[in-house]
Amino acid sequence: MTFPTINTRGNNVELTPELTALLEQKLAPLGKFLPAGETDVSCNVELEKVAEHQSGKIHRAEINLRVAGTLYRAEATEEQMERAIDVMRDEVKRELRRDTTKQQSLLRRGGQKIKALLRFGNE
Known about the structure:
This protein is α+β, with helices and mostly antiparallel strands and 123 residues long. The chain has one domain (6-122): Ribosome hibernation promotion factor-like (Double Stranded RNA Binding Domain, 2-Layer Sandwich), CATH 3.30.160.100. Helix content is 43%, strand content 27%. The chain has helices at residues 17-27, 81-122, and strands at residues 6-11, 41-49, 59-67, 70-78. A 4-stranded mixed beta sheet has the order 1-2-3-4, with helices on one face. Strand 1, helix 1 and strand 2 form a beta-alpha-beta unit. The longest helix has 42 residues, at 81-122. The model has no long low-confidence stretch (mean pLDDT 86).
């Protein structure tokens, strides 16, 4: 599945076309973790420059990805905006992968029980 349209919001940050393109490029690979044929997908990203200080971890990126009623959320604060986007992407990727793996393992476990019942019936 291709990644959905990204709704981007910026606080104390100018959303340039380069920053928007970078965000789309970084989040596009997450589309492979989304269920095929799913239409109920929304992605909201907030980019912010924390104004309390001038150096250190002042760039914050937050993503709220809703897939079929399930919310995946990640947030990162780093020294550079690109790095914050990378960390945020890695967090939401980890959540999506964990959920996908959990669903697959539940399916396998159910299949194993059915197989065991069928074997028991043949003996």
